Structures are given as structure tokens and as C-alpha cells.
Amino acid sequence: MNEKGLIAVGCAATVGLLLGGWLWMENRGSDDPFAPCRTSVVAGGTEQLGGPFELTDETGARITDADLFTKPTLLYFGYAYCPDVCPLDNSRNAEALDLLSAQGVDAQAAFISVDPKRDTPEVMADYTFNMHENMIGLTGSEEDIAAAAKEFRVAYQIQDDGTPDYLVSHTTMTYLVLPEAGTVEFFNRDVTPERMAEQVACFANAA
């Protein structure tokens, strides 16, 4: 399956999450402190997205999800050699961080590689340095990444054909993770940086 095909699968999965969670959201009602901020619904709640993991950051240090999520975090799975989708999505996330900073909201972005063969800590450090000062790059072993991706229901497929420029298909949602609260929202690719910043600020202020 090529990258566009897997993105389409990701979109279909998103629709399923929305439809599957509608009744749950109706029943939850005012018990949700973030209700005024939400636009996405996941069956069982967005807290079903995410869980414990351990990865390697861009300095080579091992960190856990608890180490990472110390402030509102825009989390994205992709890879540094991605020719088009990842740079656009990460740039959008970086722009949202600048808009949030102007509003006094302290937030960060995290970029988890699904391509451990090429994405060493050094590669991730260079990538995030050029993207945004408040973006953290994470990589790890194949097992580390598979475990983290599973927690967030991220699908990916490495199409290693033996050439240096092989592609990796992956889903492309950005997750908003808050300290203590966990995953509270996800954003599709068509969300603008302005809209993303508006929603992140809403969640951060409601936390």
C-alpha cells in the first residue's frame, strides 16, 4: 500500500472513530471538562488513545511518556526522510506553537519516527532544529516504535526496497496530549494552524 493509500485508510478509520463514539459522547455530557473544546470523538473517549512507552530522544537519552508529556504536546508520527506529508504537517504544528506562544500558552511538539533504520537521534535532532525550537524528536528500536504506535492506533508500513530513498506509509493525525489528562483531541491534516492553536489554547485553559 502506498502512502496515499494508507492516508486514506487513516481517514476512514477516523470516520469510524467519530461515528463509533457519538453515543458515548452524548451520554458523557457535562461530565467532560473539555466538552466545549472538543470537535473529535473516539469510542470510549480520547483517553483510549495513548499509553506508556519508552523511546530514545534526540540527545540519545531514554525517556518515557511521563518524561515527555510535561506540557500540552502536539504529537505526530512520521519520518525525517518523508518527502512531502511530514514536512507540511510538522510545519503546521510548528506554526501553531508560535501562535500559542503569542497567546501565552506554553506548549511543545513531539515527532516520533516510524523509520528507526534511518532516523538516528542525530538525524532527529537536525530535523527538529530546523523545524522548531520546541519540537522534540524521538526514535528507538523497531520494537519501541511499534509499541508506541500501537498505543495511539497509528498504522505504518516500511517499504524498504533496498534503496536509500525508500518510503514509509503512515497515518497522519496529530494528537494533543496534556499532562495528567492524557490524549484529549486529535487533528486531521486539513486543520489550519490557527484553528489548531485555538483548540489547544481552549484545552490548556480548561485543564
TrEMBL record:
It comes from the Bacteria. The keyword Signal does not apply. Cu cation binds at C82, C86, H170. Gene3D superfamilies: Glutaredoxin. SUPFAM superfamilies: Thioredoxin-like (SSF52833). The chain crosses the membrane at residues 6-25. InterPro entries: SCO1/SenC, Thioredoxin-like_sf. One of its GO terms (molecular function) is metal ion binding. It holds the Pfam family SCO1-SenC. Disulfide bonds join C82-C86. Keywords: Copper, Disulfide bond, Membrane, Metal-binding, Transmembrane, Transmembrane helix. The keyword Ligase does not apply. Belongs to the SCO1/2 family. This is Protein SCO1/2.
